[in-house]
Amino acid sequence: MRILHISQNSLAFDQKHAPLASSETLREDLRYYFMSPCEKYRARRQLPWKLAVQILKIVMITTQLVLFGLSNQLVVAYKEENLMAFKNLFLKSYSGVDEDDYSVAVYTKQSVIDNIFYVLDQYSQLDQLSVGPVSYAEENRRLLPLVICKESYRPGRVESSDELLRLLVFLVNYRLVNVEISFTLKGINLQTISSHEPPDCYMFAVTITFDNQCHSGKVKITLDLDAVSSACKNWKISGTAQKNTHYLLIFDGFIILVCLTSAVLCIRSIVLAIKLLQRFSKFCLKKYNRKVCEDDQREFLNGWYVLVIISDVMAIIGSVLKMEIQAKSMTSYDVCSIFLGTSTLMVWVGVIRYLGYFQKYNVLILTMQAALPKVLRFCCCAGMIYLGYTFCGWIVLGPYHEKFEGLSRVAECLFSLVNGDDMFPTFAEFQQKNTLVWLFSRVYLYTFISLFVYMVLSLFIALITDAYETIKVPTQHA
Amino acid sequence: MRILHISQNSLAFDQKHAPLASSETLREDLRYYFMSPCEKYRARRQLPWKLAVQILKIVMITTQLVLFGLSNQLVVAYKEENLMAFKNLFLKSYSGVDEDDYSVAVYTKQSVIDNIFYVLDQYSQLDQLSVGPVSYAEENRRLLPLVICKESYRPGRVESSDELLRLLVFLVNYRLVNVEISFTLKGINLQTISSHEPPDCYMFAVTITFDNQCHSGKVKITLDLDAVSSACKNWKISGTAQKNTHYLLIFDGFIILVCLTSAVLCIRSIVLAIKLLQRFSKFCLKKYNRKVCEDDQREFLNGWYVLVIISDVMAIIGSVLKMEIQAKSMTSYDVCSIFLGTSTLMVWVGVIRYLGYFQKYNVLILTMQAALPKVLRFCCCAGMIYLGYTFCGWIVLGPYHEKFEGLSRVAECLFSLVNGDDMFPTFAEFQQKNTLVWLFSRVYLYTFISLFVYMVLSLFIALITDAYETIKVPTQHA
Amino acid sequence: MRILHISQNSLAFDQKHAPLASSETLREDLRYYFMSPCEKYRARRQLPWKLAVQILKIVMITTQLVLFGLSNQLVVAYKEENLMAFKNLFLKSYSGVDEDDYSVAVYTKQSVIDNIFYVLDQYSQLDQLSVGPVSYAEENRRLLPLVICKESYRPGRVESSDELLRLLVFLVNYRLVNVEISFTLKGINLQTISSHEPPDCYMFAVTITFDNQCHSGKVKITLDLDAVSSACKNWKISGTAQKNTHYLLIFDGFIILVCLTSAVLCIRSIVLAIKLLQRFSKFCLKKYNRKVCEDDQREFLNGWYVLVIISDVMAIIGSVLKMEIQAKSMTSYDVCSIFLGTSTLMVWVGVIRYLGYFQKYNVLILTMQAALPKVLRFCCCAGMIYLGYTFCGWIVLGPYHEKFEGLSRVAECLFSLVNGDDMFPTFAEFQQKNTLVWLFSRVYLYTFISLFVYMVLSLFIALITDAYETIKVPTQHA
Amino acid sequence: MRILHISQNSLAFDQKHAPLASSETLREDLRYYFMSPCEKYRARRQLPWKLAVQILKIVMITTQLVLFGLSNQLVVAYKEENLMAFKNLFLKSYSGVDEDDYSVAVYTKQSVIDNIFYVLDQYSQLDQLSVGPVSYAEENRRLLPLVICKESYRPGRVESSDELLRLLVFLVNYRLVNVEISFTLKGINLQTISSHEPPDCYMFAVTITFDNQCHSGKVKITLDLDAVSSACKNWKISGTAQKNTHYLLIFDGFIILVCLTSAVLCIRSIVLAIKLLQRFSKFCLKKYNRKVCEDDQREFLNGWYVLVIISDVMAIIGSVLKMEIQAKSMTSYDVCSIFLGTSTLMVWVGVIRYLGYFQKYNVLILTMQAALPKVLRFCCCAGMIYLGYTFCGWIVLGPYHEKFEGLSRVAECLFSLVNGDDMFPTFAEFQQKNTLVWLFSRVYLYTFISLFVYMVLSLFIALITDAYETIKVPTQHA
């Protein structure tokens, strides 16, 4: 609406000075260019194809995302429960909850040895123990071996053997850096059968690490699981299945098509806009001998089109990746989900553009546009203080408080404090052991919170209220 | 007060042009219609019946709700404690706290079998074990059986038998999907005796499920309890009781009566208003040949009456359901409480209407009326971005963060973040295992929180402050 | 400052019409009455006694409160640790943390009997077990007995005896309501010796309750401790002590004196003000035949004096109670602390009055005065909706969510939600078991939070910003 | 920009009245003095040395801080893990989590004796147990002894001996105040080897305290670890190392140099400013016979220079301390980190000054400058009420609520409540045991939160919005 306002001003200017035929068509084209889909339909009976494509795209991309998410949820749950099961099976004295990043911590030589033997014992009895359909993995009809790898300051490598006990007792001394036990199991996800899909087979690469790198008297035991989905080779599956995925592939293909159409339409619009701009600037230069000012030029470049094109490209890449995953030739779920997720986010944000055609609806966008430069400039200043506090808090309070351990954690902690979260725990976790640091922490926290919550946040409100006031007036008069 | 203002304008308009007798009575009726109860009393000495009925209704409905809630609290506590007791009795190695949605998780075949036998053992010794008044349920003088139901990919059903052990060992293999042990117990709630009411009898349908649907090596054991209140058949109860419920039924009946009265009065008012509107529009049409504009028409339709009628209908339905529950012919407590609760909420909200008669009190309502359309329009725009973030967060962060597991959970999590809750935990729970997703989560959370807390919330304040300003001026002048 | 403004207006009015001698002294007295301590000193060289007394009072009352609190902290810690020690000594399978309101819960007959015997065993070996200085209490040289009290639907009372086992097995059946074991121990708090004070002796009345009132199969075991401080009779204490308390008593006496002085001075001021008001109104009536308007009359009644007098009376009562506690003739610590605490709060709030004499400092008070009526009126309206939500939430969500169990808890939970606390946990604790209630809870929470956080809170800001604007203008001009 | 405005006013005043040669140079110098680095470069081609030094300083100080923090993180982790390992080795029944401030609490004589013997047993088998490189410490080739120290009301000291058991049984009676077992171990941090640095040796002074000071029947066991880094004497280290620290020392030296330069430049600027001010005031006195007003004088004293000098001095002290720590002649890490952290904070805050040269960027600083006096004055008033609530809450609620136990904790708790944190837990933790205190706590919390969140915080927003309005106008016109 602001756009129309500006362009009509310059056209009004045209009208007075150059009532020529060519200028008349240019004027018409310009007016048409800045119309909303609704007005275009009224003016030239042009059906809003682009709008229809966008709406179709929203529905399809969201459906695709939801389907993908739901199917993936089962896989994630399956992997997590397997990890849990392996931890309970192979780690002695595992309590069901991980400590920090590791599963179990042991402190005596005896318990290190016990834990190593426990793993070996449980591994050897696996088929009697486990309630799930797992068994030893094999390659070319030979069972894959269990590998024990030991790293110490005089490095050595020990394969699974019978004389193991004597060896291990000897090995667990203070020079020990790492013991790593790794083996591979195969499993089958029967869960999919209930939805009449063929089962997925998995290779579980289990790695149990006894970590003594810190040499602090605490050996951390971690169990890592790398679950790779693979085709089920030695399983005979009878019955109808596999079809469901065909429908999905067709759907994905259709999405790619829609996104391509949308992208092509937007690129065409941008090209047309640039041509129109060139005609307009030539006209201006010829008639009035003046250049089109930058602000007017910017009106021709529609940021929304750029957004839509980026979103389309991401959706296409995401869909292709998704098809690869479904064909099991790829497993990088994360990259795919980031592409799909971001494109969906952009598509939904793009809806605001169409809401903006209704005069009363685009307060949010206009206010944001008006407030953004001020807010960013202000964020620069506040950011300096924020950075200073981040560094200062990390170096001084890091050794005494869990939340100040890493730079990114400090930044997140301070960000949460600004928003009024987790304040009392942050205060309370400092124990009064070291009085100097305790005092410093009080000064640090009180000044930071007061400064940011009361000064900076209030200024944000002031800035945006101010921007809203400036927006409100033309909206009322227009 | 705004209502009066408008109608007096149109009446002032009447006065000048049509000083007729019929117009005079219409004018009087109109003026009377828009009066507050207090003014009506002064004008025609009409006692404010409707107001009195409303006040009586508030008192009675709130009393009813509190009595119902208190009596129900005991029942809920009884059921919960029974569930707890059964979990402790029948589930081996139950720690007192549930893991996720299930009570216990086991990981080895042996422990599955142990747990099944433990249930059977405890069930057979029930009368020696339990401290509560529970015993085996019977129907037609025959004890109800304990049923073990096993679902596997080759389904089978096993009734409780002596050769059970051999069978079970055979059964617990990877094809197992489900084992379900179900039995029925009867109990008696003696607690009510202390308040001189007859005891309630209960049938407890206990279902213990060993869930291996996921085939991930983790068998989840859940205990579900379905407690149904029933009449105590084989118990001889002596002494005076039962009277208390009579009083309650009379009270409920009286409430239904009051609500009916209130509803009838409101319907009458609406009918009168419509008639008055018809007279007024006829009059306008005849005299000035113009239609009554829509805004004026809307003044005649009082939204409060609609609210009161809905509230009355809900209270009546709720009271009827409550009487059914007390007569033990129904157990759907939830539906009843939703009807009663919602009607009470509406009745209390309705009080604001009477406060609104005092000029200074209706700032809240007027400001809300003024701000509501803007706020809703603005919510549309913000909602698009919100939806986009919800989908995007679910698909990308779902597998890595508990709070992003389901779409509704993501929406709740984001809503909490906007209000400054649980921010640090949301940040902190992402572990730096997957760097790409970790980076994405930071960008995602920082942009979302900054956008919504600093931009959107500040705009809310701006919108409502603005609405308040526009409201304030006429209030001061009126 | 606003006061002075008004009074000077009316005096200016005097001046023109009645230049009489008596009016002149009245004018002088009035002007003097409305002066600040500083101006009074400049005008008549009167030393600000009242101010000095107030400052002295702040210092003394705060000192007294801190001393009292510190000494009490030790006593509280002593009692709490004893309670902990008794729980660990007498309750079998006590884990160190209480479940809900009870210490341990048991579910089988055998464990009830085991727990009862454990208590008796531990009690009989107390001197071999406990590390603290506790022993069996005696009265008139006879040991106080251990009492076992059993309540069942056929009530009976059993004294500690040898045939106990047979009896108990018989007793623990479903008719059992309560078993209560109570005994008394004596202890001595040696901790005070280190600060050269005489030790305090304590009588510990221990009550262990096996609660089966609910008859739900869950027997809750609670241990209650009633610790009464008493004089140490059979202990010979040598060395210097007791003096410290003398000083404290003198200090308390001095505080009472100061508070009395302050109260008397304030009452005198109020009396003088009333006399002055009478003179002024007589004068007005005689000269101009008009009454003093209510607003002017209110200027004479200084609310601060009332605050100071209430605070003084509370401080005096608190100090007397404190002396009683120190003399060990009373133990109601709570009443005393409430009196002392509230008086200290008022004394500190009273400081604002003196800050208000500096023109720029009294923004807070003036804005609050201006905003208070609007805020209260607005709170009425919001309160209705709040009450409605409270009742509705309690009845519907109570059985499904811990936070909605009691009416006061619901109110607190909603209050916290309005302030952005604990939002996600409130959402997340509803499990999707009952879909209808789950849906209701979402609608309930989203509407409540949106309404209150975005509409009501923003209106608060609008109201107070508005009040501040009206205050600011006269402040700048004055 | 405001500075320039003011000084140009006075110069404009100069220009009209005194067109002399000396006044002309003064004017030139003044104008130059108030220029930004950019303008100075344009005017006299002077390169912005000071700016360059500041930028260099920011980069270097931040680098130094990050390096120092990272190296220290390893040391802190090493110490913490050692503490954890010792607790697990020497404390019987240690659960992995500390209770309050102590590690384990025991309640019976037997368990006290068991725990003491456990320590001795584990100590004697240390080399068979521990997985870390620790061994008994020795001094002058003699092993350092394990010392058991017992404090009771008849004090005694017992050295480690064979007849220990009989003795201990005798000792653990109610007169016991403290048993302290202390011994020294030596360890080596091999972790540094991986980064090709020489290993650090540590002396661990372990103190295990059995604390019975309270005589409440609860003996608290704490393990304190004092880890002192020392040179590795009896270790032969081969290979290249030590160089890395050389580079670090050179880097630190360079930082000291830069900071010195920066401080000298700033002092020079201040001296120049004072001289200029003297010339200006002499000139004013001579020409117009008037003094330079205080506001104008303040313009000459640049607060930023003072900030930079303080920051430089702190950075220098911090760097020196850091060099001492690296040379292992000092261990006071905290003092060093406070100096380095604070100087880094100041350096980053100082960046805002340069942003302030861009007209649109200094909104934050100007608004803060404008709002600060009002905010501080207002904080005074609010602070009084806050203090009152703090004292009142401490004395009344202290014995019943963990968060109200100490004065500083109450202040922190109330501060968190104002910011909307931890509200529900604060409400919920009060149990309804003592009805009077429970009621008081509700009144206390509701009034405090309502007052501060709705009145005081809204006023903050009003104050700062107001300050922003006053700032905004000249910014737009300038």
TrEMBL record, chains A, B, C, D:
It catalyses: Ca(2+)(in) = Ca(2+)(out). Keywords: Cell membrane, Disulfide bond, Endosome, Ion channel, Ion transport, Membrane, Transmembrane, Transmembrane helix, Transport. The keyword Transmembrane helix applies. GO terms for molecular function: NAADP-sensitive calcium-release channel activity. Residues 75-165, 173-233 form the Mucolipin extracytosolic domain. It is found in: Cell membrane; Endosome membrane. This is Polycystin cation channel PKD1/PKD2 domain-containing protein. The chain crosses the membrane at residues 247-271, 304-321, 333-355, 375-397, 443-464. It comes from the Eukaryota. InterPro entries: MCLN_ECD (IPR049134), Mucolipin (IPR039031), PKD1_2_channel (IPR013122). It comes from Pygocentrus nattereri (Red-bellied piranha). One of its GO terms (cellular component) is plasma membrane. PANTHER family: MUCOLIPIN (PTHR12127), MUCOLIPIN-2 (PTHR12127:SF4). It holds the Pfam family MCLN_ECD. Residues 335-471 form the Polycystin cation channel PKD1/PKD2 domain. It is a multi-pass membrane protein.
